[in-house]
Amino acid sequence: MCGICGWIDFDRDLGDPDARRELADMTATMAYRGPDDEGTWIDGPAALGHRRLAIIDVQGGRQPMTLQGDGRAALALVYTGETYNYRELRQRLAALGHRFDTNSDTEVVLHAHREWGHRDPRIAVSELNGMFAYALWDTAKGEMLLIRDRLGIKPLYYYPTKHGILFGSEPKAILANSLAEPAMDAEGLRRALCSSSIADPHNTVFRGMREVRPGHIVRVTRGGIQQMSYWQLTDSAHSDDVPTTVRRVRELLDETIQRQLIADVPLCTLLSGGLDSSAMTALAAHFSDDRIRSFALDFVGYTDNFTPGPGRPTPDGPYVQEVAKFVGTDHTDITLSADELMDPSVRAATLHASDLPLTLGNLDSSLYLLFRAIRQHSTVALSGEAADELFGGYTWFHNPARVQADTFPWYELSEDVALQSLDPGLVEKLDLPGYVDEQYRTALAEVPVLTGPASADRHERRMREVCYLVFTRYLPTLLDRKDRLSMASGLEVRVPYCDHRLVEYLFGTPWAHKTFDRREKSLLRAATADLLPQSVVQRVKSGYPAIQDPTYDTMLRNRFTALLNDRNVAVAPLLSVDGSRAFLRATDNLRVVEQILTLEDFLTDYNVSLTV
């Protein structure tokens, strides 16, 4: 797990002092992603930078890494993430005559491209099982490949220039180069106001900057930039009955957890007491040679003063303790207060980690603080992220009105941005409802056609669409959030439920199978029930905890009021002061308030040029 960046300029030798200085600046922005080591490599038009968080082969896995050919570096690589099947691939490659100098997965990726990717890089990357983003420069071909894992677990951005491209794990690495401008136009503002959970994962809020799409390769040559897909969700004509499907899910989970326990540094799990994280923790404890450490998030007085709300019927604490005792983990609770969540330095660190004016408010700051605390004990953590998307855990999956709505089932524009708080002229110009609809139509057109007996069932066809939308629009947002907030503390978070084999299998599984017991997450519950206490097996989903301390809401209201009173703030031209005051008086949902406050911080801290 690391941070990567680089620069291709086909009309310049990047070995000159000015270019070297800019590459160093780009690399330095990602010091927290890779606190253990740094390195750069330059060869003519290509410059690569790397910050390393050492996980596998701590001594031998330094980067950038090269593979010699004809007396010079034929291939040069900067890589972030993990290839979980690297040991199997290493054995295959060794049998084909390849010789290795390290025990790292990075070197295996290099040799895989030498062996299988010289004609078509899609062949090589398709051999990899893992979460990764990497850049591969071929000196003989004069070609740069930017490659991202199938689900988009690891981020990778690029910025086309007149003579080449800039790229990095995060926008801040690209913006450190003088060729990149921190600018936002109307399209970027639409994305910022409507959240990225509906947007095509290609463009960003920064004008001209793009994101390598999950499952894609971006090829950069003197002739231009080309995108190609090496993986996509397809129809698999699922034929297994329910018992067979349950067994196959358990087999895949067993294999995945065993692979993802590989690390040369301390490892732990994130435990919430829900089915997803509890099943994952139980499997990790079963397959680990050592006692598994687990960590949970809590707030001061949260369990004692808990008030049930939509999506959160029960507090996590009692279930966490029961699972930890039942499974036998070495457990620690991380307890936070309202003051910690509103600490300006914490809010600034959260924004700096995300590089985006998008926020889930205290859900983001609490996750950042949780990861920061865990990093004091472990370098790798396993998370239950993506189980709700795979197995159908969210309440809107089971809400007929939401499912049949002619839009994203999880999305309500009114919940994401209070239109009355924005300047009326801006609201008309942005046409946010039209933007949401456009994004929905674009995503819907990508859905693979359902075949087989289930295709005759209207509800099955709709659920195929919903599952595709979730995997390609909703999930990437959560994975990006998890990566940014964890790497901000140098913590690698792995997501076993995102193993592409499990995703492929479940995407093809009929919705009737996924709800065979008329509940959410039927398959996961059946596949792991033997590992868990019955209270957890039967627990109804409860969402990620949010602080319920009224002090936090008061702090937010006070800061928003101060912002409205200052017409010199960066966000002032976007707001209707009267509308914002009316909105603040009328609402108890301060999500929009947090969003506007974050947008103000973003525009100011990144010195964004805003043109709408």
What does this entry look like structurally?
This protein is α/β, with parallel strands linked by helices and 612 residues long. The strands form four sheets. It has a six-stranded antiparallel beta sheet with strand order 2-3-1-9-8-11. The protein has a six-stranded antiparallel beta sheet with strand order 4-5-6-7-12-13. The chain is globular.
How many distinct beta strands?
19
Which stretches are low in confidence, meaning pLDDT under 50 for 5 or more residues running? none
Radius of gyration based on Cα positions:
24 Å
Tell me the major beta sheet.
Answer: 6 strands, antiparallel
Proportion of residues in β-strands: 15-25%
Helix content: 40-55%
Helix/strand-derived category reads alpha/beta
> Oligomerization state of this entry?
single chain
Side-by-side strand order of the widest sheet: 2-3-1-9-8-11
Number of DSSP helices?
25
Question: What is the terminal separation in angstroms?
Answer: 37 Å
Average the pLDDT over all residues and give the rounded result.
92
**Gross geometry:** globular
